[in-house]
Write a structure and sequence with these properties.
Protein name: NADH:flavin oxidoreductase/NADH oxidase
Number of domains: 1
Structural class: alpha/beta
CATH superfamily: Aldolase class I
Largest sheet: 8 strands, parallel, barrel
Helix content: 25-40%
GO molecular function: FMN binding; NADP binding; NADPH dehydrogenase activity
InterPro entries: Aldolase_TIM, OxRdtase_FMN_N, YqjM-like
Order of helices and strands: EEEHEHEEEHEHHHEHEHEHEHHEE
Cofactor: FMN
Radius of gyration: 20 Å
CATH architecture: Alpha-Beta Barrel
Strand content: 15-25%
Organism: Acinetobacter tianfuensis
Length: about 375
C-alpha cells in the first residue's frame, strides 16, 4: 500500500487515507454567520470526494472574529443546529468525517468578499465593525486601527473558543482544528511584528505563545477526552527580519502544543505582514513541515501547491510529513482522491452510485462505502 492511502490516526479518530481537504473560506454565509444552500452542496461535494477527511472553512467563535461579513460562525446555538442537521444528512451519503476550523480573524477581520475587492470595511460601514488584535497595529496603513485586547477580553476570546468547541462536538464534527496561522488573531499574538505588548502576553517567546496555548487548553477542557484537536500554524512570516515569526519559533511552538495534547500540527505559512515575500513553487512549504516533523512525535500535515498524486506520495515517502492537505486542487478537481488512487494503483471507497464510472481496463479499484 502506498502511504497516501494508508490509514492515519488523530487521537480517537482514524482516517481511511491521508488526503485531507484543507479549510477554504467560501464567503457564502448570510450576515448572521449561518449556513446557506451553497454550503449544503459544497459539503456534499466534499463528502463524495474520496478524501480521508474534510476540514470546513474558518468558522468564527465571535461575530467580530469573522474575516468577512459572509463567513460562517459557531458562536450561537442556531448555527450549531443548522450544522448538525447538515452533518446528519451527509452521513446518509458518505462515512467521511468532517472537521471544523475554529478561528478569530483579529485585525484582518471586517473585510469585503474577495470578488468584491477584499479590502477592509470601516467600523461605520453597514457591513463592517471594529477589529481587535494584540496591539494597535493595523495589517496595512489603509486599514482601521485595531483595538488592543485587554486581559479580560483575551480570556473572553479563549472562553468563546471553548464554547464554540462544545457546539462543534454536539453538531457532529469529529475533529476541531484551531486556526493559529495566516496572520489571524492567534498568529498576531505570536509574531513580534504584530505584538508589541508589555504584559504577560507580549515580549518573550513564552509570553507571545501564551494565548495560543491557553486557547488549546480551554478547548481541550471543553471536549470529551480523546477528542482530537489539531492546530494550524504559519511556519514563517516570510519577512527577513530578526524580529519576526520563523521556523525556529514554529518548532518551539509545536513542541509546546504537543505537550498540551494537540492531535497534529498543520503547517502553512505567511499572512501576517503585507511586506511578506513568499517564494511560491511546488512544495514550497514542505521543508517547514519536515522541520517540525523532526521535532515532534505527533502527526504533521503538509499543505501548499501540492497538486499531483506522486508529489503527495513522495512527501510521505521521504518522511517530510504524515498527511497531505489539498486545497485549491480539490476545488478544481473534486474527485482528486479518485484520480490519485487510480494513478497510484490503490483501491478507494466511493458511493455505490458512482461505481459504474470506473474507467475501462483498470483493475477494480473503486469499492462501495
Amino acid at each position: 500500500m502506498t502511504l497516501l492511502f494508508k490509514p492515519i490516526q488523530f487521537e480517537q479518530l482514524q482516517l481511511s487515507n491521508r488526503i485531507i481537504i484543507a479549510p477554504m473560506c467560501q464567503y457564502s454565509a448570510n450576515e448572521q454567520g449561518e449556513l446557506t444552500y451553497w454550503h449544503e452542496q459544497q459539503w456534499a461535494n466534499y463528502a463524495l470526494s474520496g478524501a480521508g477527511m474534510c476540514i470546513i472553512e474558518a468558522t468564527a467563535v465571535q461575530p467580530e472574529g469573522r474575516i468577512s461579513f459572509a463567513d460562517l460562525g459557531l458562536w450561537n446555538d442556531l448555527q450549531r443546529a443548522q450544522m448538525k442537521a447538515l452533518l446528519v444528512k451527509l452521513k446518509t451519503i458518505s462515512p467521511m468525517p468532517f472537521a471544523v476550523q475554529l478561528a478569530h480573524a483579529g485585525r484582518k477581520a471586517s473585510t469585503d468578499k474577495p470578488w468584491g475587492g477584499r479590502g477592509q470595511l470601516a467600523p461605520e460601514h453597514a457591513q463592517g465593525w471594529q477589529t481587535v488584535s494584540a496591539s494597535e497595529l493595523p495589517f496595512n496603513p489603509a486599514d482601521h486601527t485595531p483595538h488592543a485586547l485587554t486581559i479580560a477580553e483575551i480570556k473572553k476570546v479563549a472562553a468563546d473558543f471553548a464554547e464554540a468547541a462544545k457546539r462543534a462536538v454536539d453538531a457532529g464534527f469529529e475533529l476541531i482544528e484551531l486556526h493559529a496561522a495566516h496572520g489571524y488573531l492567534l498568529h498576531q499574538f505570536m509574531s513580534p511584528l504584530s505584538n508589541q505588548r508589555t504584559d504577560e502576553y507580549g515580549g518573550s517567546f513564552e509570553n507571545r505563545i501564551r494565548f495560543t496555548l491557553e486557547v488549546l487548553q480551554a478547548v481541550k477542557n471543553a471536549v470529551p477526552q480523546g477528542y482530537p484537536i489539531g492546530v494550524r500554524i504559519s511556519a514563517t512570516d516570510w519577512i527577513s527580519d530578526a524580529d519576526s515569526w520563523d521556523i525556529e519559533s514554529s518548532v518551539g511552538l509545536s513542541k509546546a502544543l504537543e505537550q498540551l495534547g494537540a492531535a497534529y500540527i498543520h503547517i502553512s505559512s505567511g499572512g501576517l505582514h503585507e511586506a511578506q515575500k513568499i517564494e511560491l513553487q511546488a512544495n514550497y512549504q514542505v521543508p517547514f513541515a519536515e522541520a517540525v516533523k523532526k521535532s515532534v512525535s505527533i502527526p504533521v500535515i503538509a499543505v501548499g501547491l501540492i497538486t499531483e498524486a506522486m508529489q503527495a506520495e513522495g512527501i510521505l515517502q521521504y518522511e517530510q510529513a504524515d498527511a497531505i492537505a489539498i486545497a485549491r486542487a480539490a476545488l478544481y478537481d473534486p474527485r482528486w482522491a479518485w484520480h490519485a488512487a487510480v494513478e497510484l494503483g490503490e483501491p478507494i471507497a466511493i458511493a455505490p452510485q458512482y461505481l459504474r464510472c470506473q474507467p475501462r481496463g483498470l483493475k477494480s479499484q473503486f469499492n462501495a462505502f
